[in-house]
Amino acid sequence: MRAFPFGKVVFTVRSLSASRAPERLAKGGVGVLGARELQKNAVEVTIRAKDMKKAFAILQSSCYNIENIRYRGSARAAQRALASAGLLAGALLFCAVSLFASTRVLKVEVQGSGAYYEREVLAILREEGVTPFSAMPRDTGGCTARILSLPGVEFCSFKREGSILVVEVQCAQSEAPIAGMPLTSPVSGVVEELIVIRGTALVFEGEEVAAGDTVIADYVLRGEKKIPVAVIGSVTVRSEFSKEYEGTEAEAVAQAMLDFGSPAEIHTRKTERGWLVEGVAKTSVSLNLG
């Protein structure tokens, strides 16, 4: 409770010796303006508000219980003013927070036939400085240009709904998400590079795969729902090879390059039948990258 330098305070003292509370206060230097017995063990006491802390300290140290504290006169008016000021401050703070939040991006929603580009759109926005709690973008020209550069996108617009930034992306009819074919690994080995523009990656760079394993699935996830799309991406698989060839060393190397592409590393060793060619090859395959 706040002690005011003016006005009065009325409270109830409870104790087996409650009737002696006014006397104890007076001996402690607290002016008692009034005392009224309520019950055998309860007395109502009136003192100046400025003496409240001192009075409470005296009574509490003597095991008196203090209840039902009320302000009177100017002290009561001051208490109400403080309460009103607290409510006003709270209301002003709420308005300030609400105003601040309305100018910030709390969520981004990607809508339209190109909603399957959500991951790419969010990445573009981050690179353009639009992140959670950032200011709502005033100039969306840079973001729009980059989104329109995505394959098949022919329309993009931005609008604000409260603290939500809504990005509408529309694709040409021929580029709308359709069922397609997944991208599979051409050989067994280790994934060295994986580029996913559209689709869902099922492996990571550095992961071992077998020939025919799906590396990019022909769908995107929206929660637990799978939305079919035409995969756009590529994979490069690093694999070791070893094969024996007849003929000269040059002929063996040439045939190995035909069999395994352009090896990153190649070694030869003479055998009874010809040449053993060993090395590391990088095999790449892509879908819809042009």
Layout of helices and strands, plus pairs?
Blueprint: E1 8-14, H1 21-27, E2 32-39, E3 42-48, H2 52-61, E4 65-72, H3 74-102, E5 107-111, H4 118-127, H5 141-148, E6 153-161, E7 164-171, E8 183-184, E9 189-198, E10 200-201, E11 208-209, E12 214-217, E13 219-222, E14 225-228, E15 232-245, H6 249-260, E16 265-270, E17 275-287
Parallel strand pairs: 5-7
Antiparallel strand pairs: 1-3, 1-4, 2-3, 6-7, 8-12, 9-11, 9-15, 10-12, 13-14, 15-17, 16-17
Distance between the termini: 77 Å
Helix content: 25-40%
Task: Give the assembly state of these chains.
Answer: single chain
How much of the sequence is in beta strands? 35-45%
List low-pLDDT spans: 94-101, 175-179
Supply database-style keywords.
290 residues; alpha+beta; 5-stranded antiparallel β-sheet; 4-stranded antiparallel β-sheet; 6 helices; 26% helix
Description:
The chain is an alpha+beta fold and 290 residues long. Helices cover 26% and strands 39% of the residues. It has 6 helices and 17 strands. The strands form 5 sheets. The protein has a 5-stranded antiparallel β-sheet, covered by helices on one side. Strands 2-3-1-4 form a 4-stranded antiparallel β-sheet. Strands 5-7-6 form a 3-stranded mixed β-sheet, with helices on one face. The longest helix has 29 residues, at 74-102. It is elongated.
Short description:
By secondary structure, the chain is α+β, with helices and mostly antiparallel strands.
